[in-house]
Amino acid sequence: VLEALKACQIENADTALMIGDSANDILSGAAAGTKTCGVTYGFRDLAELTAAGADRIVSGFPELLAVVRK
Predict the structure, then answer these.
(1) Rounded CA separation 70/66 (Å)
(2) Distance separating alpha carbons of residues 25 and 23, to the nearest angstrom
(3) 28 strand-pairing partners
(4) H or E element, residue 19
(5) Phi, psi at residue 64, to the nearest 5°?
(6) Tens digit of each residue's pLDDT (9 = 90 or more) over 2-37
(7) Which helix H or strand E contains 4, and what residues bound it?
(8) What does each C-alpha distance from 27 to 19, 23, 36, 42 come to in angstroms?
(9) Which pLDDT value is given to residue 28?
(10) Are 64 and 39 in contact (CB under 8 A)?
(11) Cα 50 to the center of its chain, rounded Å
(12) Read out DSSP for 28-53?
């Protein structure tokens, strides 16, 4: 995540959003200092994303789009 932020020239990680479908995605984003959003339409379920501490959890693309636009 840190390498992606650097490649995109994002200096403040807290302005970025890590979107993922597993605990590893959420934990990686949080460790890098980004906001995190779990998606339940991937490989893992709501319980795993919640346990990982996702800032937001969505269940579909329209919901995700609303989060990204904020």
Answers:
(1) 7
(2) 5
(3) none
(4) strand 17-20
(5) -65, -40
(6) 999 999 999 999 999 999 999 999 999 999 999 999
(7) helix 2-7
(8) 11, 6, 9, 16
(9) 98
(10) yes
(11) 12
(12) HHHHHT-EEEEETTSSS-HHHHHHHT
Backbone angles phi, psi at 18, to 5 degrees: -95, 120
Residue recorded with tokens 């709501």: 46
CA–CA gap between residue 20 and residue 52 (Å, rounded): 11
Which amino acid type is present at position 6? K
CA distance 10 to 34: 11
pTM, 2 dp: 0.92
Structure tokens at 20: 């993922």
Tokens read off for 3: 């390498």
